[in-house]
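G., before I forget:
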Amino acid sequence: MFPILSSLIILPFIGALFLIFIKSTERNTGIKYVSLFITFANFFISLYLWRIFDPSISAFQFVENRIWIEGFINYKVGIDGISILFIILTTFITPLCVISVNSTTKYRLKEFLIAILVMETLMIGVFCSLDLVIFYLFFEGGLIPMFLIIGIWGGNRRVYSAFKFFLFTLVGSVLMLVAIIAIYWISGTTDVEKLYELGIQENYQKLLWLAFFSSFAVKTPMWPVHTWLPDAHVEAPTAGSVLLAAVLLKMAGYGFIRFSVGLFPIASIYFVPLVYTLSLIAIIYTSLVALMQEDMKKLIAYSSVAHMGFVTLGIFTFTHQGIEGSIFQMISHGLISAALFLSVGVVYDRLKTRQIKDFSGLVNIMPKYAIMLMIFTLGALGLPGTSGFIGEFLVLMGTFKKSILTATIASIGVILGAAYMLWLYKRVAFGDVLKTIDVNKMVDLNKYETIVLSSLAILVIFFGFFPEPLIKTYTVSIDNLINVFNSSTGLNLAENTR
Amino acid sequence: MNNLYFIIPELFISLCVMFFLVLGVFKNNSSKIIFYFSCLIILVSLAINLNIKLQGKIFLFNNSYVVDDLSLFIKSIILISAFFVMFSSYNYVKVNNILKIEYPILILCSLLGMLVMISSNDLIVFYIGLELQSLALYVLACFNRDNLLSSESGLKYFVLSALSSGLLLYGCSLIYGFSNSTNFNEISQNFDFEYGVVFGMVFVIVGLAFKISAVPFHMWAPDVYQGSPTSVTVLFAILPKIAALTVFIKFLYGPFLNLFDEWQVIIIFLSIASMILGAVAAIGQKNLKRLIAYSSISHMGYALAGLTTGTNEGIQSSLIYLIIYLIMNLAFFSCLFMLKRKDKFFENIDDLSGLSKKHPILSLSFLIILFSLAGIPPLAGFFAKFYVFMAVIQKEMYFLAVVGLLATVIAAFYYLRIIKIIYFDPEQEKFDTSINFGLKFTLIFSTLIILIYFLNPNFINKYVVNILVI
């Protein structure tokens, strides 16, 4: 069989190698076209993959298994209904990043595109890998390009943010590495499929769960280790923020579903109160913090933390609706946060400021932009008819089944979300045009920006009305996950009703 | 005669050393020729060494000398790295005016000492080998005699090293006193728990720990690394460490194996202390050579961690660690040799500022090497640590593993700082770009290995998995 997943992983990397040998010129046309071509090719391959993917099978598909380290670790990749959506999200967001970089960045464009392409390879690898060690390689490898993206092309405090991002993530991850090695010696394999069958001894589960949690909690990010995220977002260039918010954070959510819940079901149940508490704090506290932000990017960054709080909440309800909602929320947040960061990038390119007080009345001078921003604002606050609604609704529904109190508190977060997003929109778009704004500079969206933002807007609205294509893809996989969960806990804690 | 067949590399090198000494006396301006011939000789002895085939262990000269898989393998590694060290440093040696005939001859002498030390199966032979390599290294450290720092480092190294040799010798004599023999095979049979024996063992371990600069016997390393000519520093960073760590393996898993419980605690302590101190102390450094001294201290801590396990896997993981460590160091020092402007070499971290704009390829190599030293996947440095911690966790020493991995996070900080200076800081004047072939080859070769190691980890592992010490 043709190794379609491996080619999906390796293609951007080959593109990056190719870029190294292209000479950078004044206009960089060659570089731009090559990177666009590669990322779009990857996008279409992944769409084709979605087409031939059979959502009615619960097992992993397109599995490739090769010997990598003799008698020790195999290179194993494969996808199920959950991972394929994240792969498509990655391959969809990356070309948008490339377009936005191409039209705005002048400084060392070639290196920037190389970093983005390498990043894409690693991100797809994370979602494909079915071996813990391989997963770790991709998961950690992503630190290198992201560190460079923030550090080289970032804002004024970029060094601080890049270091904070790198070291925070590394601390969490090394504990996960210890856990992975421990799993190898306890179970004799790091193959995820085999581990699902074998299960892991009960007495080890709690410590291993905590080690994995330390890594994923930093990456998600959960309160109180979320502090790297606002810094990283504010200082990162637009494309970096987009990748970070849209895909990197989802790695952790994906990790929770695939590894924490899948491998350590007993520990997962044991630690439910911890996760609920941290998620609720994330939802309420960071929403309140977001209300008070003066920097647009920072506000969106904090709202990301709150949205990811819903994701963790949903996963640890262990109900079909909750997990379904979490995945939907991740995809939708991937689209909406990417779009919001791109929107901030649009005005930042024109005025070189991100402070909310520097903007006012944009609806008068940039009508197209104001419409786009409105769609994404409404999506972020979860208005029915946008994809944001479905995710939050399903998560809350799942949570209600388990704990009414938790669900009630989480619902307050939805209201707060509406408050800070609408207030942001009011301050930026409505009112009189400030005298300090140079109207000549504030031209409306250009061709590239329109393409990028409208494609995102269409998807946000489309999935708001027709969530079925996404839900159909992963519903069997979730059933399977819950079955594994039930059989290994021996309890029927996780309800498998639709 | 049969005995001699297995020591042809050693014989060959020692004959060549004598021949060169004579040649140097009779021929004027022969230093360049001797330098290149030494490289050639190292390659020839490597070829001879690779051709020695054996089954099991072979004891020579009344059991005082042993040739086995471990020693043959390490000898090849040492010869290869010695070749690359010389091959890459010619330009540096020439420009800094230390290209005298004694320079390559001394390197050959120390090489000979290491080969003897690795193959020794007797305390006296071991000590002769150790002293031969150390004496040659003392002279090399102060080879740039017009330089105050170089002379100081040579003297410092000599005094401290002599002290540690004294301790080691005292330990050897205690061991001899309690086991009635200097031969490793007999010692291990006569060895039993007695306080005198344990004392002897501790002294030997202290002496060896000094040679690999494990904390708390590391004080000499930063000064000596900084003061010595860079071409000698790279030698210090690689060759004696490999040799001494191999001897560590030979001692711990040979004569001292019965005292496993006693020495395991000591080695764990040395390992943890080295990892943490190496990581913390390097943060404030301004000189790259000093920084790499601390970095090598912490790397030795990881290599020692593999030895604490008492399993073949642990020893093999340490050996893989050593190999990857030497490749990374070779690459790092090759980069240092390139920082030349108008016949002056630069070695401060600030001199790297903004390197990436004028020297993209060199900075990319720096980037790969530094991330690899920090142990970030998918580069080779990660796998080195991965194997060691595989072995450590197999024995359920979680504390050691967690401390070690958290130390990598601290260490990552100072590697990142260099990357930050290279990539994020304002640029400076351009460095010379005329680079001789040997240096370029060494850098590209070693960096490529670091970069693509993950594609096929077996290509190093397969040589190591056959080495069974216990």
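Chain B has a mean pLDDT of 89. The CA atoms of residues 167 and 203 of chain B lie 6 Å apart.

More on Monday.
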